[in-house]
Amino acid sequence: MIFPNDTPAAGLTRREVLCAATAVAAGPAALKGAGAQGTPSTPAAAADPAPQLLTTQLNVNGRLYDLTADARTTLLDALRERLGLGGTKKGCDHGQCGACTVLVDGRRINSCLTLAAMHDGQAITTIEGFASAEQLHPLQQAFLKHDGFQCGYCTPGQICSAAGMLAEAKAGMPSNVTADLRQQPLLSAEEIRERMSGNICRCSAYPNIVAAIEEVAGGRS
């Protein structure tokens, strides 16, 4: 044991003695990673792998796009950064808020959790594909009528998700609150809230969103 008044060994400073004692106590692994002066060295960070480019044909809102991009490019980033379709929003980027919801072959998905290369040739619908040249989609009209948005950031994902949800209910898919699995689901306010629970509205316009969807659903499947 070394005390403050002890004289260090010849040729060594007290700091060097303490560093050596610490390394010995930590075991061979610490000694192996120690630098020339007996202090632990930091391993070099691994370099990012070189991008692997893939060519994918994306069918977005009825228009074909030939996209050559890194195989790791998400569908969300491809839509926003490569195709210029900024209606699809990046919220949490972890699949937790629903702002990036789009339809793929009619089914709603979180575009931040899937790769663009996985959807070669599939029909992708973003919020830009809902309205015709002169007519809003019924969901868009209902959101305006019922003031179903405030800041509007989550609205594209809400509308895309609502369209997918209505298709699911029409196909007879039950939710966690469906009372009778043998009958066509009735899209009550409770059903709509449950089925839309993956889409977060930070402005808390939920009652208006439910009212808008309920109007389009007509209270029926």
UniProtKB/TrEMBL annotation:
List the transmembrane segments. Answer: none
Per its UniProt record, what Pfam families does this chain match?
Fer2, Fer2_2
Q: Which InterPro entries match?
A: 2Fe-2S-bd (IPR002888), 2Fe-2S-bd_dom_sf (IPR036884), 2Fe-2S_ferredoxin-like_sf (IPR036010), 2Fe-2S_ferredoxin-type (IPR001041), 2Fe2S_fd_BS (IPR006058), Aldehyde_Oxdr_Iron-Sulfur (IPR052914), Beta-grasp_dom_sf (IPR012675), TAT_signal (IPR006311)
- Which domain of life, per UniProt? Bacteria
Ordered alphabetically, the record's keywords are: Iron, Metal-binding, Oxidoreductase
Q: For the 2Fe-2S ferredoxin-type domain, which residue ranges apply?
A: 54-130
Xref: PANTHER family: OXIDOREDUCTASE WITH IRON-SULFUR SUBUNIT (PTHR45331:SF2), OXIDOREDUCTASE, IRON-SULPHUR BINDING SUBUNIT-RELATED-RELATED (PTHR45331)
Question: What is the protein's given name?
Answer: 2Fe-2S iron-sulfur cluster-binding protein
What organism is recorded for this protein?
Answer: Caenimonas terrae
